[in-house]
Task: inverse folding
């Protein structure tokens, strides 16, 4: 392990909250922002990753919790949660957005050499609540199923790079809009109602640095087809800290080896 | 090993089933519950007003002067279809401007209150790409086209007042109009929604009707789509290229039209050019013309309004969108079919002192375009490509009344 070799990555992580505010935060209502895509590095049964992070993609930063676990060889389960804003958004007198989205799924992975190939499939539910101010609001329920092939390379020296393509079907089965006068927003809500389901292709690129059992992870997630006109965020930038069971196991194995060799 | 593959496959199948899209359940709240309940007794209005901005994949030119206010246009739509605004309660604006006929009617001259015969044919409002960007000096300055066959109104407001107070049309005074509007319970919430000051006044009534009329436009005909395809391919002059989207007959008709008719009716059907007329020795630009219908016209047309000798017997030259569904034709509806119109231009133009220059030979005699039967068929085929089915069936322009 050579943490100093990944200093650039840590510096980038420290810089991101400021960069994110400037580059990704939007000052208008939005109706969807992509959450991070799993790029799992799993070698065997009981490997997994539990992470927490922030992403910038819609209006404010979003909290993201991502977990992944392999209970059986080559089979993995995952669960994610994404949240922007909180209950105060509903009472806010200034325009604000609250998005909540949770998803779970499972998939297949195959470890070979320094890489892991995986295919995960998931189903998620959530809601996006836009408070436009002056008592005007919209509240849309979301449902998204997805399939995501991915590949992760681990150099075995503390650096990983993952890429995954998430193909998803996003639906808004229910919605409510109280809008009087903001016809631009009405049009967007109407289009979301009428044009759904949306077939999204989202690419996630994730370099990460390992320090002991922890992973510092960056991810840029962006949609390949822009839906900016209906205020779907085109990209999100995520920084996360995760506990990595695979690397923890490697550490334990290395320690045992060292003990055995003495 | 095989079982491991089966689990995600099974899960994927479950997800696919989950992806089957059920009808979305969206609710919009614009009116209060009480207002909407009241409106719903009389009117079939959506819970949110329609968007009256012109929707077209082919938005060429400046067709949207200003986006219509949806509340104001909704109120205007109700007023437009309301028969309470006529003396005998039988006529609304929509009686003579029916959506299925491109907002004209199918009579030679329109019929007003007490079955009185009007003087002229109802102009199809959907003969333009965009009412707001063509008509009205209020929206378009001095270059804005004027209203009626004789150009006597400058704005949609003036035009609506003219029709409501015409004894052969709705035969009301504006005071009676305001009183009739106040008497209907459904107007109070609609005015409150449309105006900061919801008092029902003549100005508010006519502003709402004007907003609805000005939202009318037609840009989704086969001609528009083909024109757009050509423009995207770098072919900007519709006169110079056959359209891939057209049949050979339609393309032949287009070529004949561009050669013989477009000087007055425009090449892109968006803006018919102003035509030169002679006012003494000075060149004068007007969108009116005599097209040689009569040697001695009974109707003085624009000249009857302006009193100008060189405009006697001239009439507005309309653009021709949706002309295939707006028969009969001419200011007096004398021609029942497009074939009859084409026959007129082919061999029937009569001499007239103010006959448009374009329709004259060098010696001053009326031109004979001498179309063959095949030419006539081709022209009719082309003119039908100007029909825009979307606006003819667009619910936002339809009758909102439940009775």
Result:
């Amino acid at each position: 392990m050579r943490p100093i070799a990944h200093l650039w990555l840590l510096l980038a992580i420290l810089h991101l909250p400021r960069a994110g505010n400037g580059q990704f935060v939007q000052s208008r209502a939005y109706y969807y922002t992509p959450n991070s895509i799993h790029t799992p590095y799993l070698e065997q049964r009981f490997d997994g990753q539990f992470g927490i992070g922030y992403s910038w993609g819609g209006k404010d930063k979003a909290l993201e919790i991502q977990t992944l676990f392999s209970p059986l060889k080559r089979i993995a389960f995952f669960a994610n949660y994404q949240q922007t804003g909180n209950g105060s958004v509903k009472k806010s007198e200034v325009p604000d957005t609250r998005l909540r989205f949770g998803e779970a799924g499972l998939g297949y992975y195959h470890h070979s050499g320094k890489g892991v190939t995986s295919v995960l499939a998931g189903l998620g539910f959530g809601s996006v609540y836009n408070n436009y101010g002056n008592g005007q609001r919209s509240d849309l329920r979301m449902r998204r199923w997805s399939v995501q092939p991915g590949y992760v390379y681990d150099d075995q020296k503390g650096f990983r790079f993952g890429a995954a393509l998430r193909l998803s079907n996003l639906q808004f089965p229910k919605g409510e809009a109280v809008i009087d006068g903001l016809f631009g927003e009405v049009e967007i809500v109407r289009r979301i109602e009428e044009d759904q389901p949306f077939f999204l292709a989202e690419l996630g690129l994730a370099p990460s640095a390992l320090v002991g059992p922890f992973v510092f992870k960056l991810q840029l997630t962006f949609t390949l087809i822009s839906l900016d006109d209906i205020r779907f965020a085109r990209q999100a930038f995520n920084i996360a800290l995760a506990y990595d069971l695979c690397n923890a196991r490697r550490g334990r194995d290395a320690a045992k080896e060292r003990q055995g060799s003495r | 090993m095989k079982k491991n593959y089966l689990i995600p496959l099974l899960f994927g199948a479950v997800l696919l089933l989950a992806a089957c899209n059920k009808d979305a359940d969206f609710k919009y709240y614009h009116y209060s519950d009480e207002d909407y309940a009241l409106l719903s007794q009389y009117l079939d209005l959506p819970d949110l007003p329609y968007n009256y901005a012109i929707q077209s994949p082919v938005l060429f030119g400046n067709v949207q002067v200003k986006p219509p206010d949806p509340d104001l246009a909704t109120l205007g739509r109700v007023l437009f279809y309301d028969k309470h605004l006529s003396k005998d309660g039988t006529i609304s604006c929509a009686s003579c401007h029916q959506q299925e006929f491109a907002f004209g009617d199918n009579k030679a001259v329109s019929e007003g209150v007490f079955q009185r015969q009007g003087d002229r044919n109802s102009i199809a409002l959907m003969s333009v790409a965009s009412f707001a960007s063509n008509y009205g000096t209020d929206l378009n300055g001095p270059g804005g086209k004027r209203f009626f066959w004789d150009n006597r109104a400058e704005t949609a407001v003036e035009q609506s007042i003219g029709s409501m107070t015409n004894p052969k049309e709705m035969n009301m005074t504006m005071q009676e109009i305001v009183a009739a509007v106040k008497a209907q319970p459904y107007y109070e919430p609609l005015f409150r929604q449309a105006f900061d000051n919801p008092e029902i006044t003549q100005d508010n009534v006519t502003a709402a009707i004007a907003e609805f009329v000005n939202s009318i436009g037609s840009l989704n005909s086969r001609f528009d789509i083909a024109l757009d395809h050509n423009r995207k391919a770098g072919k900007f002059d519709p006169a110079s290229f056959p359209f891939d989207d057209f049949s050979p007959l339609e393309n032949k008709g287009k070529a004949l039209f561009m050669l013989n008719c477009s000087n007055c009716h425009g090449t892109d059907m968006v803006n018919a050019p102003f035509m030169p007329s002679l006012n003494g020795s000075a060149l004068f630009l007007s969108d009116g013309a005599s097209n040689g219908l009569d040697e001695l016209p009974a109707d003085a047309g624009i000249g009857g309004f302006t009193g100008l000798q060189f405009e006697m017997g001239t009439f507005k030259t309309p653009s021709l969108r949706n002309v295939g569904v707006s028969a009969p034709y001419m200011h007096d509806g004398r021609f029942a079919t497009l074939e009859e119109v084409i026959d007129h231009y082919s061999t029937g133009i009569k001499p007239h002192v103010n006959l448009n220059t374009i329709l004259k030979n060098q010696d001053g005699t009326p031109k004979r375009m001498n179309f063959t039967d095949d030419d006539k068929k081709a022209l009719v085929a082309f003119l039908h490509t100007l029909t825009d089915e979307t606006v003819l069936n667009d619910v936002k322009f339809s009758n909102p009344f439940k009775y």
Summary: The CA atoms of residues 226 and 234 of chain A lie 6 Å apart. Strands of chain A lie at 48-56, 61-72, 75-84, 96-112, 115-133, 136-154, 159-178, 198-211, 214-223, 235-244. The two ends of chain A are 21 Å apart (CA to CA).
